Amino acid sequence: MGSVNKHISNGIASLLFLVFISAGITGCEKEDLVEVVSYPDPVEFDFDAISERGTIRMITRYNSSSYFLHRGMDRGFEFELVSQFAEKNGLKIEVVLLGMEDDPIAMLNRGEGDLIATNYVITSDRTPHIAFSNPYNFVNQMLVLPADHPPVNELSDLEGLSISVRRGSSYYETLLQLQEQGCDIHIDVVSEDWNTEALIHEVSQGRLQATVSDDNLFQVASRYIDGVSAGMVLTEQDTVAWGLRNNAPQLKEKMDEFLAGHFRIRESDGRVLRSAFLNILSRRYFEDERQISRLRDRSFDMIYTGYISPYDNLVRDIAAEAGIDWKLVLAVMAQESQFNPNARSWAGAVGLMQIIPRFSRVEDEALLYDPEINIREGVRYLQKHLNRYAHLDSLNRYSMALANYNVGMGHIADARHLAVQLGNDPDEWESVADALLRLMHRKYYQHARYGFKRGIETVNYVEDIMDRYSRYHAISELAAHFRERSLDDAVSSR
């Protein structure tokens, strides 16, 4: 699990200052106060350090365009684009989800992530604090209204309208500029964990008067959220790019080079040219109605229901009986079979949890394709390994148990023994992971009881599951938060 550089920022808080702004603009209900944010200095962590760590951390929001789960697996336009960048540079991707009141720029500068990728528009408020990559899209900001609202096509039609947006969004800056132009609008500031789709949904239900959305997001949302209509375009051709620390020139160079191969503007006529890959992503997430419908069959309502996979309820019950966090079981299942109950590996492991029949209590192999039987067997194995490390903290306990689940107790015993020989703590996963990597070399495995093992596979297995478990936990927390609070708790009119 990545927590590199977080210790650097543990005492650094963002300082918030409220300053008076000018008043007296005719016909304009300006806010009396505006929040000016002072961000922590960016940590020193450029591409060389990211490459050495082996993972790039993507700060994003859970929504049905940037990043979401489809049947438990990672999806999203931004996720796939960043994944392609990571693959081209020999990196794994780690998703860092924005939670309640999280500020992406503060998280970026503290080193909790390496880039912001969430349909992020370059704005005058953001450019003093972070750098931006080359663009990969242009969007228009548009007003979103209930379907039965009278048309709003001119600035004068905005008079008296209450528009709900997040303060940290580019939409907030747009609305402030409209107020400065004399528009008689009221800005309702909502909590930072409300994404654009959720606000569009609230408009459709008549609980909000209006909100603002980028046109590509509205194009998708309006296909599965009834009762909304498009109002006037508020801004045109806003530039979408990745946000990164302004002291990371290596990373910016890598990003710019990558994005230049997928998106550029032809100088002769200003035409936007996209690569085949970027066109495929655009069709998949914004244009192809059949694919959009398939991908979003549960992605949107997950934020209200907590739905992660088709096996949530079954896993919850079985995991509760064993005293195991159900989300950890789901993370193992995603890694082992990608939630395919008919999966079978080259080694003969079968079903959702990839049970090896000869090690199972179930005599009839065909029964292991039954989801409930397979999950029970997998949870039994996992519980046995978790109990073996019950004396450890949760991070080391989970990691050790997962390693045993993947490679067996023999190779892990070899790695723990080697860790002791090297003067390291055999109860620390980092020490055992280091030993597993060493056991790939003859100097070490020739003295091991169980011999050679591709330790890198087990290390990656543990890291991938723990990363996914962290995402499942964060998503589940967001859903619980939405279920528990009312709209009045989420929206505060200033």
Structure characteristics:
three-stranded antiparallel β-sheet, Lysozyme, D-Maltodextrin-Binding Protein, domain 2, single chain, disordered C terminus, three-stranded parallel β-sheet, 494 residues, alpha+beta
Please sum up the structure shown:
The chain has helices at residues 47-53, 77-88, 104-110, 170-180, 196-204, 215-221, 249-260, 276-287, 289-295, 302-305, 312-322, 326-337, 371-388, 394-407, 409-421, 429-438, 442-445, 455-484, 487-490; strands at 15-20, 33-38, 55-60, 68-70, 73-75, 92-97, 115-116, 131-132, 137-146, 162-166, 186-190, 211-214, 228-240, 243-244, 263-265, 272-274, 491-493. It has 494 residues and is of the alpha+beta class. The strands form 7 sheets. A 3-stranded parallel beta sheet has the order 6-3-7, with helices on both faces. It has a 3-stranded antiparallel beta sheet with strand order 12-9-13.
CATH C-level label of the largest domain = Alpha Beta
Q: What about the largest sheet?
A: 3 strands, parallel
> What is the general shape?
globular
The tally of domains stands at 3
User: What is the number of helical segments per DSSP (H or I, 4+ residues)?
Assistant: 19
Q: How much is the average pLDDT? A: 86
Strand content: 15-25%
Radius of gyration: 25 Å
What is the CATH fold-level name of the largest domain?
A: D-Maltodextrin-Binding Protein, domain 2
**Percent in helix:** 40-55%
Note the gap between the termini: 39 Å
Enumerate the strands of the largest sheet in spatial order, edge to edge or round the barrel.
Answer: 6-3-7
Structural class: alpha+beta
List low-pLDDT spans. Answer: 1-34, 486-494
